[in-house]
Amino acid sequence: MNEWVLAAGVALVAVIWADALITALSQRGGGPITSRVAHGLWRLSLAAMPPGTRSRAVELIGPTVVAAIVLAWLLGLWAGWLLVFSADPSVVVDANSRAPVDLGTRIYFVGFVLWTLGTGTYVPVGDGWEILTAAASLQGFALITLGVTYLLQVLQAVTAERQLAGVVDDLGGTPDGIVRQNWSGSGFDALSSYVPSLVQMIEHHGRRHQAYPGLRYFRSAERRVALAPSLAALSDALLLLESGVAPNAAPPPPTLRPLRRALDGFVASLDHTAVEPSAADPPLPDLAALAQSGVPTAPPAAFAAGAGWASHRRRALWGLVDASGWRWDDVVGEASTPP
Q: Which of 8, 94, 173, 242 lies 20 to 30 angstroms, CA to CA, from 308?
């Protein structure tokens, strides 16, 4: 028996399980293998479909990355157990002739053991190897179950993400659209009623971003359900309400404070992703256009000062917008469905 090959196989199996459990069950994000596979595929997708691409094909990136993560686990487990059963080439034999099998047949045998429950043409020799065969079979089905569970969790999170984007779009979609649509002529009472539910949805999604690293690779070709431009629009709408609207017309600060904290918390969750903040602040919303619609506005100097306090959040969200395949024009323009 080659003890080094056996040790390498056991170590690879342990690493695969550690990576899968960290990724699927912990709140720490992706494990080392998951992070490298996902990041590599993400870089390839950006090279093929850079930010600004409006093809429907961008919607395939997220499912492809998450499926590749699960496939990497399965292939890694297969390779690990193959090393274990290759430590002694005589332990897997033909059930009829009892002759040891070659490497290609051992590959088949390990895959058969991991992914099926039947008795094949090839069998292990010795009580210890029979027990290891049963353990390998149990691990194979356990990893498939874990992988499917992870896929379903990510898809549920994507559905919740698009629901959040849809709610923001219904509020007005763009920064000045949200403010204008919820201006009653004397205040923003209608908007205030949406704040608690928005806060809850944003906080939940921030935690999902930390728990499911594959979630950040899902891109949408439809503006209405794209989270990145929707959150950026909501952030700038909050900036307008806090600093751009005249103090006598703006909502009371305690009403908006939870929303600001939720957005800042979401931005903090982006520190665990591959999203890089923009190097400069995005353009400020146009106060003149808001004033023309009848909303009382604050002096430009006061608005600029408020924008300075929000600089970190706005840069981070611009980076997210860019990484999600959108431009800042999509944040401030009309909602649209790319061709």
A: 173
